Amino acid sequence: MSVGLLLITHGQIGSALLESATSILGICPLNTECLSVAPYSEPQQISDQARGVLRQIDQGSGALVLTDLFGSTPSNIACSLYHPGQVRVIAGVNLPMLIKIFNYARLDLDALVDKALAGGCRGVMEYQPDGQ
User: Which residues contact 58 (CB under 8 A, 6 or more apart)?
Assistant: First the structure.
């Protein structure tokens, strides 16, 4: 069994990241779903939908929920899903994070969270040309 993955983001950010990651890797190794939160979305309705999606993607190993902007509506919905040992939440999703998650898809939930955080942080850097 593997960890389920749910992206809850503004607009189509999650879908675009998922499409890019699977295009780069050629596969999507985790049971993954995306939920889009539009400006007119009803948070409670999205939250209810997210709970249903979690039940579908969690095959017994837990689920990781990724969101884009901490403190925003998608993030608040994601945080409401947190359940110790079963559902973990990370804000600030980016493509390096998603690639790292997919490359380590066999790991358990806690180890996958560590890889996701490392990949997301290490994937953000400033270009510095040699000699400057």
Answer: 4, 86, 87
Residue 82: CB partners within 8 Å, gap ≥ 6? Answer: 65, 88, 89
CATH match for 4-121 among 3.40.50.2300, 3.30.300.330, 3.40.50.510, 3.40.50.1860 = 3.40.50.510
The percent of the chain in helix, strand and coil, each rounded to the nearest 5, is 45, 20, 35
- State the Cα–Cα distance between residues 93 and 67, nearest whole angstrom: 6
What stretches of the chain adopt beta strand conformation (E)? 4-10, 32-37, 63-67, 87-91
Residue with token string 């969101």: 67
pLDDT of residue 1: 77
Residue ranges of domains in the chain: 4-121
Give the pLDDT band of residue 5 (cuts 50, 70, 90).
very high
The pTM assigned to this predicted structure is 0.95
